[in-house]
Amino acid sequence: MTILAAYAPGPGHCNTLLPLVEDLAAQSDCRVYLCGSQEVAAFTGIGSLDAQHQPAGFESYLRSSSSISGDEIIRRMGQRSRRDIERLITELHPDLIVCDTSERGAVVAAVDHGVPFLRVVSCADAATPNGSAEEARRRTLVRGYDADDLRSPLNLGTVAFGPRWFFSGSEPPQENLRCYRYRSRTAAEAIHGYSRRQRPRALISFGTFITEPPIEVLGKALMGLIDAGIKSLRVKIRKTSKRVILRGWSEYLSARTGVNISVTAELDLLHHLPHADLLLCHGSATSTLEALHRAVVPIIAPAHNDTLFVARRCIDADAGVVIDPTGNCIRKQVHAAATAALHSPQITAGMQSFAAANSALPPIAVLVDQLVRH
C-alpha cells in the first residue's frame, strides 16, 4: 500500500501527522511518502521515520502584504501544493492520501485523481460548523469552482488526535469527527541533564509564523514568571535583534535572581516539555495538546481565531490559563497565571481530566488498522 502524507508548511501541521505517519510506516506492507516543505521536515526531525520525503508546496507560508490578500495567499499556496501532489500521484500511484486540514491542495488533487483521502485536524476549530465552512470556502479558492468534496465517496472522514472537547465549541462538529488518543512521536526523546533544583521550569515559545510579542512584553512576562517562583526558563525568540536584547537582559536577571534563563532561536517542544511545568505560548493546537499530554500547564496568549478557540476550550475544561497579550500589567497577569497554573486545585483536576479523557480514546493503531484494511 502506497500512502502520501501531505502537510501545510508549518511545524505544527507536520507534527500533527507524524504519529500517524510513524504507525503507518511501521506496517510491513505500507510505503509512506511524507510530502511538504523540506525546511519544516528538517526542523521536525523526520529522519528517524521509516518514510521517504517528497518536496511539495511552498517551503513556508507566504506573507500577506498590501499587494497580496489573504485569499490570494490561500489560492496560490493551495494551487502550488495541488500541482505538486498531482505530480506525485502520477509518479507514485498512491492508494491513499492523508493530509492535515490546512493542506487543501492535497484534497483537491485527491478528488480530481480518484484517490481516497483522510483529513487530520491541525487547527483545532477546523471541524466546527464555522471552521468546516471556512475550509470548504478555501478549497473552492484552490479549485476555482464550488464542489462538496467531503460528500465524495473518496472521503474517508476527518479525524483528530485528542479529546473531543478540544475540537468542539458550543455546537457539535459539523463533520463526522472521529477522535483517537493523542500521543507524542515515539522518536521524540526528552533532553536529559536537568536538575530537580531547576524546578519549577517554564518554556516560552510562540508560533513559527505569528508576530512575536514586543520585547517589552517578553521582558515583563519573564519577570512575572520569576515572581511566581519559576527557577528555570527557556525562551524561543526567532527575531535576531530581539534575541540579542533579551539575552543581555536575561544575563542581568539571572545574576540578580539566581534563575537559570536561556534564550534561543529555536525550541523543539517535543524534547523540552518532559522537563517543564509551564508553557507560555500563543495556543496552537499541536503545542497545546503536547503540553497537556505531558501534564504541562499551558498559559495561552491567543493571537488569532483558532488560538482563541483553543484558549476557550482550555478555560472551559480548567486545563490552562489565558492572558491578554495586548493588555496592561503583563507582569501581574503572568504572575497570577503562573501562580494559578502551579497551585490551583481546579487546574490540577482539569489536567487530570484531560489525561483520563485522552486515555479513554482508541489508540492511533486502531485507525491505522482501518486504513490498511480499507
UniProtKB/TrEMBL annotation:
Protein name: Glycosyl transferase family 28 C-terminal domain-containing protein
